[in-house]
Design goal:
Length: 107
């Protein structure tokens, strides 16, 4: 599966190499998704500037996801329910400044 880097939810080129920081505005990239029963888990790579994501479902449920570092890469896992699959995310830096937004519909 090809992976695109997203800038505010829009395709914006390819993933950076692990030793290269994402360019300004490049925040979240979908890497892989797994599905079992009525739940899916999506692994996303986040830019170094992203401290956390706030994820919102179409039903209004909101939760916070923090990245985990694996080498120089940073990843988040985002759960979704088949009954509420349209999720959106907002990325924030460590100071709480909003960096950008996007939607899983573009993954």
């Amino acid at each position: 599966m090809g992976c695109l880097l997203y800038q505010c939810g829009k395709p914006n080129g390819r993933l950076p190499r692990p030793d290269v920081s994402a360019a300004a505005g490049q925040l979240v990239a979908m890497m892989a998704s797994s599905h079992a029963g009525h739940v899916s888990l999506t692994v996303v790579q986040v830019a170094p500037s992203v401290d956390h994501l706030t994820v919102t479902t179409s039903r209004g449920r909101t939760f916070r996801v923090s990245p985990v570092a694996v080498g120089s890469w940073r990843y988040c896992v985002i759960p979704a329910d088949d009954h509420d699959p349209d999720i959106s995310w907002t990325a924030y830096d460590a100071s709480g400044v909003q960096l950008g937004t996007g939607s899983a519909r573009h993954w």
